[in-house]
Amino acid sequence: MRFPRSRPGHALNIALGALVGLWPSAIWAHPHIFVDAGLAIVVEGGRVTSVEVTWLYDELYSLILLEDYNLDPDFDLHLTEQEVAQTLGFDLDWSYGFEGGLVMQRDGVALELGPPEPVSLELVAEGQLRTVHRRAVVDTDAEGALLAQVFDPEFYVAFEMTGEMSVNGAQCTPQLIRADIDAAYAGLEAAMDAIGGAVAAEDNFPAVGELFADRVVFECGP
Fold first, then answer.
1. Which of 103, 107, 137, 213 has a CA positioned 20 to 30 A from the CA of residue 177?
2. Distances in whole angstroms, Cα of residue 94 to Cα of each of 67, 101, 152
3. CA dist., res. 59 & res. 159, Å (int)
4. Residue 194 scores a pLDDT above 80
């Protein structure tokens, strides 16, 4: 799966709307999918040991997935145990170059993340698919600021970190820092200029996903 939110947030809508006027070919290529991301971090002895990542897919892409995997054919917004068993982990077969979108840092140093393990798959009341996967984390320092981001470098997927953020094993307060859309827009313009102002193919779109990425900073007490 190439990799694969509720509707795009207001700020993202503005930015993407602006792209339509400037680069018509680019907007048709990116992004394709919108996902609300949430994190449940586990801390032991002051160090992060694992994280559960929630992806809530937008309504349209959820519908496509339901059709592709023949899920919920009776339209009761409930997945049977058999449907879950046959489909769980469908979105963890990432293509080359995409490593799951999650970046975690301790004082600016990237933390090593293990491979994903599927945890759950469900269809929520709004008709959106929600998946959870778990990843081990190697954190060698029990002190320092903890930062997390979820983004697709190629901006094929537009993530927003508006899902639930929690920490088990430490008293932490998450602070959501939304992407600076003006700065992201300027960076995208510069990237488009660098390739001549046109997207000739799907793989020609500049890797600007990080420019549009939210950040969550976890302030943790002793």
1. 137
2. 20, 10, 12
3. 14
4. no
Tokens of 182: 């003006």
Residue 19's pLDDT is 43
**pLDDT tens for each residue of 141-164:** 878 889 999 999 888 889 999 999
Q: Are strands 129-138 and 117-123 parallel, antiparallel or unpaired?
A: antiparallel
Mean pLDDT, range 165-181, rounded to an integer? 92
What pLDDT band is residue 1 in, cutting at 50, 70 and 90?
very low
CA atoms within 13 A on the CB side of 35: 28
Instruction: Answer yes or no: are the C-beta atoms of 104 and 174 closer than 8 Å.
Output: no
Shortest CA distance to 72 belongs to which of 123, 132, 4? 123
43, 170 in Cβ contact below 8 A? yes
Domain locations along the chain: 10-220
| pLDDT surpasses 90 at 100 | yes
Query: How big, in percent rounded to 5, are the helix, strand and coil portions of the chain?
Result: 25, 35, 40
Distance CA 133, CA 219 (A): 24
Torsion-angle region of residue 154: left (phi > 0), alpha (psi -120 to 50) or beta?
alpha
Say how many CA atoms lie within 13 Å of 215 toward its Cβ: 15
The pLDDT assigned to 97 comes to: 76
The mean pLDDT value for 53-74 works out to 96
